[in-house]
């Protein structure tokens, strides 16, 4: 009798199998979707992911979605279990599961991302579930462990590098800022004609790049792990590096006392202090703006940002 021991390592190669990690990086990452409808061993070896009940054990802060689309939160997996059994979709971080925590860091290392850039999120539902058309700002590897889910996905030609969720043009935007950031509005009302329909089964993976429109529908038991990247954006690399530099100045380290004081004199004095700091900012930024060697400067700023490479266990 032979028993096959599935791999316990969760990394880019196991997540995108049967495609190789190299081929994924060459042909898909970070802007072209990829899907594989079956995959041997993808998270199959993680005992905490054998069922929704097992995944909920030890989970903290579980969000649940009511049939009307509104959401609520309970403090832990025990409190969420009856809601899950009632048929509500539950959503929670996967950081209580060691294999997922490690897997996130492996993915960061394999993708060349700073440590902590990828987080695991778990969705489970039993009954009719799904999400209406929207696009997200994160980059997502969605691994379906149990159930069947239909996805429709299409490229977003209306906004580049969105920073929040976008919904169809006919409905209210959760973050109206996205309309200001968009290249073209209104957003489409329905999934674009060129949308692909994917029928995902247990063991499948979908890599969905940032901003792609999608909707999903599932029935019956469904358990999905998403590995999502939500940071860092370039502006975070720069602003964190700037903060490191400004930290050296006692003025910038000062508290913003009195900025909302009811006493107009105190408020004016506070804003005067900020104005004085701004007067010195040009000199502080000059070495950065006038640098002859931008490549060296970029390396220096990355170091000062405090982001660190991920380590393989
Ligand atoms: Fe989404």
- In N-to-C order, the SSE pattern is HHEHEEHEHEEEEHEEEEHHH
Largest sheet, spatial ordering of strands = 1-10-7-12-5-4-2-3
Largest sheet: 8 strands, antiparallel
Unreliable runs: 1-7
Hetero groups: fe (ii) ion
Mean pLDDT: 93
Number of strands: 12
Quick summary of this structure?
With 313 residues, the chain is α+β, with helices and mostly antiparallel strands. It has helices spanning 12-16, 21-27, 52-56, 77-85, 98-111, 177-181, 234-246, 264-289, 294-305; strands at residues 34-36, 60-65, 71-76, 89-93, 118-126, 129-134, 139-146, 148-154, 196-201, 204-208, 213-218, 221-229.
General description of the model:
There is one protein chain. The chain is of the alpha+beta class and 313 residues long. 31% of the residues lie in helices and 24% in strands. It contains nine helices and twelve strands. It has helices spanning 12-16, 21-27, 52-56, 77-85, 98-111, 177-181, 234-246, 264-289, 294-305; strands spanning 34-36, 60-65, 71-76, 89-93, 118-126, 129-134, 139-146, 148-154, 196-201, 204-208, 213-218, 221-229. The strands form two sheets. It has an eight-stranded antiparallel sheet. A four-stranded antiparallel sheet has the order 6-11-8-9, with no helix packed on it. A hairpin with a 5-residue loop joins strand 2 (60-65) and strand 3 (71-76). The site of fe (ii) ion has 4 residues, from strand 6.
